[in-house]
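Table S2 (continued). Query chain:
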Amino acid sequence: MEQMPNDSQNNSEMIELAVVVLNYKTPGLVVDCLRSLDGQIQSPTQEVVVVDNCSGDDSADLIEAAIETNGWSGWARIVRSPINAGFAAGNNVGIKASNAKVYMLLNSDTVVREGAVEIMMRTLDEHPEVSMLGPQLKWMDGQHQTSTFRYRTPITDLLVASNVGLFWKLFPKHVSGRELHEFTTGLDWVSFACIAIRREVFDSVSLLDEKYFMYFEDMAMCREATKGGFTIGYQPQAHVVHLRGGSSPVKEQTRQRKRRPAYYYAARSHYLRSYYGLIGFVAANLLWLMGWAIGSVRGRPGVVKREYADIWSSPTHKVQIGGGNG
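Corresponding output:
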């Protein structure tokens, strides 16, 4: 996994916070996100770096114009990536573009509620043992959105594919989502729709694994950080609206039980092989097939039939460029 570049430790003063927002053809969402940050970013000790992930349209120009027109240039700037190598790679571009103590990775399809940035920074100050911190994600109507999770395991595929409640009760430790409503530390992983990460994590462990084009990179990054001795926390007092699906079609396709893009299955394969080996990867797929068969008999499988071939995708499967926001 990629490390922070040596030249990041230069003579320039290290700022307190760099917020990294990744754009891929979603300039309207990015501008709304920046508008929600207006008044929350304290220049010159904090800044926002918008990375245009080689959108190939006028996104970067529109965002740059909005920054200038709205008077945000004192705390926001845009970096144009020459390629779109995915969500992990795009965020790494933003991380390497700033010299900060804390990096907040923020999806373009988010609206940061007033005070959220301050609350997260204060929480990190008050809890030096926490190195990665997620806020409470909410839907636009204010309802709680699950953003804290257990690691996905091969057995998780049985639960997801079968959609049988009994299995979820039999294997509670393999149910991915965790419903938390109070400050908690020692989590497996939290959503990267919004997460604050201390610089030490990138220096000691790595940047995001760019072998993941999109999806599973957040869980993998958290696993690597935890393995390196870092602690992950959740602060529900900080609220961030996540317009889930606004920057990527995968979550909506999952909800509608539609076949997902090739990069999702390639990322799944890379994750399973990385943490459970070839045997674990095969076991996960067999459990998926078992779950799909059981769910089909019941008339309500949790996945679509066509995925039975997709789950065997190679982790190095070449993806179609068409995403990169997360």
